[in-house]
Amino acid sequence: MLQGKIRAIKRWPYLAHVICMLKMRPKEGVERMCVNQGGVVYYNPLMEEEDPDTLGMLIAHEAWHIVRDHFARQKWRDVRRWNLACDLAINDDLGAPFPGVLPAQFGLPRGRAEEWYYDALEDGQETEIHFQWEDGQDPIPPQILKGLQQEVARGVLAGNCPGGLKRWARAVLGEEEPEERLFRMVWAALYGQKSDISYRKPSRRDWGDLILPGWVKEKPTLAVVVDTSGSIEPELLDRFVGIVQRLAQHCDLTIYVGDATLEWKGKDPSKMELIGGGGTNMGAILEKVTEEVALVLTDGETPWGSPRRNTYALIYGHRNPPSWVKAIKVDL
Questions:
Q1: Do the bridges between strand 23-26 and strand 221-227 make them parallel or antiparallel, or are there none, so unpaired?
Q2: Cα–Cα nearest to 11, from 95, 99, 130, 102
């Protein structure tokens, strides 16, 4: 087991403190491993025959049950279904090859939270239990657990970790999500759009019998360009759709969908057709945008065309756009 801990720390150094705290105890009747809320890991004695790499992955898995506070977050949920949801979230972030269940085995997307997986799973879908509830062990004190979570979160953000883990880490540390930062930039541009005067809204100042027009601001207009090229995975398209639906609640939205050419244009997100799957040229689509402010949702594998003002981009990946595009990059 010591070799397993060493392998786990080498591969996931940000978990080092938590892994060192885990108390390893053999116990008959355990399928492989399980952890209790006090940080005690029970394992089947036969697991000592396993190779250190497999043990390292299993130990890291149990450490994440502690760090993500799965015992407290279970609340009213069925323990077996909740356990499976937690396993999907952890194993997805640990990465393959992992000796356990993964979201794809249930037809589910990657990078979602445990609560989301729980709601998406059907009754009867379950796996081996990794939680040891009724053993009388006191939980890790909240202040110690919070310190461990913050330490792990800082390590996650400093390294090359999956996007799901980084979103968890930013939430733990109270940092703003990249999408939220870009939305603030876009809102600033939108609400800087021109105002006008109109008698539909009289001035609030009292001018006696004289009625003067007041200032009015039309609902801000925004163009959203959705990249549907072949490099965009279905999970990322789902995220694009969610962003478009959110934006439509706050502004007069025109949606441009395409890969190397414009394939669909409209204003109703519910009628949006995600046509594409070919090459990529967001520049060709931006040439057709007539709105003052444009937001591009893409992975960045694209030519950008001629410079234009007030162009923003959410880039899911690490590619850099030209300097005239105000972009925020998001880890996948």
A1: unpaired
A2: 95
Instruction: Round to whole Å and give the CA distance between 305 and 325.
Output: 11
Q: Hey, what amino acid is at 104?
A: A
Q: Which two tokens stand for residue 182?
A: 């870009």
- What residue ranges define each of the domains in the chain, with the CATH number in brackets? 2-173 (no CATH), 184-330 (3.40.50.410)
CA–CA separation, 58 vs 35, rounded Å?
11
- Rounded to the nearest 10°, the torsion over CA 200, 206, 210, 212 is -30
The residues facing 306 across adjacent strands are none
* Residue 217 scores a pLDDT above 70: no
pLDDT digits (tens, 9 = 90+) for 270-329: 899 999 888 999 999 999 999 989 999 999 999 999 999 899 999 998 889 999 999 988
Is the pTM higher than 0.85? The answer reads: no
pLDDT band for position 142 (50/70/90)?
A: confident
3-state class of 294 per DSSP? Answer: strand
What residues does 43 pair with on adjacent strands? Answer: 26, 33
DSSP string over 173-214:
HTPPPHHHHHHHHHHHHHTTSPPEEEEEEE-SS--TT---EE
Q: How many CA atoms within 13 Å lie on the side-chain side of 230?
A: 2
Query: Do the beta carbons of residue 186 and residue 224 sit within 8 Å?
Result: no
